[in-house]
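# nightly structure sweep
# worker-07 picked up a monomer target from the shared queue
# config: single-sequence mode, recycle default, output format = structure tokens
# input follows
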Amino acid sequence: MKSAGPDRDGRRGCLRLLAAAALLAAGGGHLPAAQAQAGPAAEVTQLKLERSDDGVFLSAAVRLDLSPPVLDVLDKGIAIHFVAEAELFRERWYWTDRQIGHAARHMRLAYQPLTRRWRLNVSPVPITAAIAGVTLNQNFDSLDEALDAVRRIGRLRIADASEVGEEGERYPVVFRFRLDTSQLPRPFQIGLVGQSDWNVAVERSVQLPLEKMQ
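# output follows
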């Protein structure tokens, strides 16, 4: 008689995810009205555009506060993903601005129960299970330390040095930062519909002076 162990384990894992998603959705209904409307806070607090022989780099800092439901998912060992994206433009008086650079940084944050540490994977492309093992990663002793690393976007290479002029010239920059819920397990995505606690997204458009990288 064949054992049904693997299939049974798979069904149990799926049921656990569905149950957790249901609890998450139910928990959202008990939030105070003001908290449910406001959602978590995110704000771009710093942007800096620098040039070196290797290219043009953007550094950013984001104020980010995660809501209790998001922190609860992290505590359960489920990874969450953040995306930082930037566009660099050259102004044209006779037409719309021309995009001269674009870059993205994908970050996957997860708790490692065996080591009791937090791991942050970083990649220029979306992080899937297939590439997670070959991405740049850092380990942290606490969630606060890991989130500090998420909040600081250091020297994101956005364009070739040949695309810009001298230091002091100003260039339009659009910077976006968001929590990517599309990377969550499917049952959680269904349970998050309409929940403002997961709407972590901020965008800032500004003209920045080009500085020489120290």
